[in-house]
Amino acid sequence: MENAEEKDTEVKAPSVVDRYYTRWYRADLKGKSCEDHCILQHSNRLCVVTLADTHPILQEGRTIKSINYQISNGCSRLKNKVSGKSKRGGQFLTDFAPLCRITCTDETEYTIYSCIRGRLLEVNENILETPSLLLEKPSTDGYIAVILPKFEESKSITENLLSREQFESLVSKRTVAQSQPS
Q1: Which of 103, 139, 161, 175 has the most CB atoms lying inside 10 A of its own CB?
Q2: Which family does it belong to (predicted)?
Q3: Residue 10: is its pLDDT beyond 80?
């Protein structure tokens, strides 16, 4: 039987995300309060776009009705096909390129943006069949898309993003502001 002292010194191993990725954030996207996105940047430059824990979809027990990668009549992120070592053929995205639209059962609709410039490598088709992955595992199985920034831009790609510390500071200020009576 373990004693209390051993239990306190037991260190939980970091998750795969915490070990191999740096978290970056884009807060209040397009001026919409709390519509925060998280970009997981791997040491190999790949960036995974996910929802930040503070995004309204992950709050208030919402249920997802549909996820649509069809951005416009002529543009579907599902038709993105890349090939070869240089990932030719991937759609090029700007910072504010829409990746998908998520509609909740309460009919609220959210557009998820790329947040960074780069080539779209893949979208997560698994969330189309199992939307609950987005709610249950937003940083892993419920990711939105994978983007590869241009090599020459890979260092500057995070200039417009918030570090984890900056984001946590912003969220705590936001929480204080929301709790004060108007």
Answers
A1: 161
A2: Belongs to the ABITRAM family.
A3: no
